[in-house]
């Protein structure tokens, strides 16, 4: 369960709004929160002093807006490369969840424009909640989980159930896409309630009395997941993102993902709601 949260703030408010919505969920309320603001290196010492003062104000204003129990909040102001600082603080604080803003840059853009969230997504082993700048953050009622047979998908389901079971009127949406299924004109898709990947999750939801819907659409997984998330007005999408990096390449970004070849990278860019990526 989520007991330690690392919130990165730049003063824009999107990530703060996301944390507020999470804090409405009983399972999240006891969590300790580290609020981090990073000031990039400046050319002159005077410039650095000025930026640190501005950063201190940004951090203080963010803490005030969050209105959390002061005993459970740890504000941190750091100077340095934001990408490296976020990864380091996440490890040092042993965080269970990183919340970051994202511009939703596509493919090679994220390399050329030195995306902080993309870098952290690549190199951190921690679950990461990305909130795009153009996404409207809503109260969390409908949580979608994309499922397959992987261990990370099972972790996603466990996390989603832990969140949704405490939300009054909440709904769990279970999705398993089948890229190999090609329907002919007039042909009806299989009943999602009988999908072998979804069945264990359906049974768990029934056992706990959780309101659920399920879907097992054909087609490209990334496109269909994003389409369903929009159609079903999803408030939070949870998706597994297996760690494929060999130990020798821990410090090297995964070019397949950076170029948009992975499911998690596609959903990160195109989903119209906050996306929680689970390792």
Give an overview in words.
- The protein has a 10-stranded mixed beta sheet, with helices on both faces.
- It is an alpha/beta fold.
- It has 10 helices and 10 strands.
- It folds into 2 domains: 4-132, 3-Layer(aba) Sandwich (Rossmann fold); 142-278, HUPs (Rossmann fold).
Per-chain topology:
Layout: E1 4-8, H1 14-23, E2 32-39, H2 45-66, E3 73-79, H3 82-92, E4 97-102, H4 109-112, H5 116-123, E5 128-132, E6 142-146, H6 151-164, E7 171-175, H7 199-208, E8 212-215, H8 221-231, E9 236-240, H9 255-258, H10 263-270, E10 275-278
Parallel strand pairs: 1-2, 1-4, 2-3, 4-5, 6-7, 6-9, 7-8, 9-10
Antiparallel strand pairs: 5-10
Query: How many strands in all?
Result: 10
Alpha-beta classification? alpha/beta
Name the average pLDDT. Answer: 83
- CATH architecture descriptor of the largest domain: 3-Layer(aba) Sandwich
Low-confidence stretches: 106-113, 244-249, 255-260
CATH superfamily of the largest domain: HUPs
Give the N-to-C terminal Cα separation.
14 Å
**Global Rg:** 19 Å
**Numbering strands along the chain, what is their spatial order in the largest sheet?**
3-2-1-4-5-10-9-6-7-8
Please give the domain count. 2
**Helical fraction:** 25-40%
| Coarse morphology | elongated
Question: So what's the CATH class of the largest domain?
Answer: Alpha Beta
Summarize the structure.
The protein has helices at 14-23, 45-66, 82-92, 109-112, 116-123, 151-164, 199-208, 221-231, 255-258, 263-270, and strands at 4-8, 32-39, 73-79, 97-102, 128-132, 142-146, 171-175, 212-215, 236-240, 275-278.
Give the tags:
single chain; 279 residues; alpha/beta; 37% helix; elongated
């Amino acid at each position: 369960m989520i007991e330690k949260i690392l919130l990165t703030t730049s003063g824009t408010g999107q990530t703060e709004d996301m944390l507020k919505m999470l804090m409405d969920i009983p399972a999240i309320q006891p969590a300790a929160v580290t609020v981090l603001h990073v000031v990039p290196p400046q050319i002159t010492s005077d410039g650095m002093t000025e930026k640190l003062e501005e950063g201190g104000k940004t951090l203080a204003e963010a803490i005030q807006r969050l209105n959390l129990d002061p005993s459970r909040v740890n504000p941190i102001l750091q100077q340095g490369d934001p990408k490296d600082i976020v990864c380091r603080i996440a490890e040092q604080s042993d965080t269970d969840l990183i919340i970051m803003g994202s511009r939703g840059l596509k493919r090679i853009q994220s390399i050329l424009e030195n995306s902080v969230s993309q870098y952290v997504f690549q190199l951190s082993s921690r679950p990461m909640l990305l909130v795009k700048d153009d996404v409207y953050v809503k109260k969390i009622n409908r949580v979608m989980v994309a499922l397959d047979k992987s261990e990370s998908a099972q972790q996603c389901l466990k996390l989603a159930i832990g969140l949704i079971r405490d939300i009054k009127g909440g709904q769990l949406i279970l999705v398993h896409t089948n890229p190999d299924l090609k329907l002919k004109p007039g042909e009806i898709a299989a009943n999602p309630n009988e999908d072998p990947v979804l069945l264990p999750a359906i049974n768990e939801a029934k056992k706990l009395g959780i309101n659920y819907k399920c879907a097992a659409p054909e087609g490209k997984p990334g496109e269909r997941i994003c389409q369903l998330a929009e159609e079903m007005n999803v408030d939070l999408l949870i998706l597994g993102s297996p760690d494929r990096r060999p130990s020798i390449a821990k410090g090297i970004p995964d070019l397949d993902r950076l170029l948009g070849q992975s499911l998690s990278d596609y959903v990160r860019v195109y989903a119209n709601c906050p996306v929680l990526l689970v390792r």
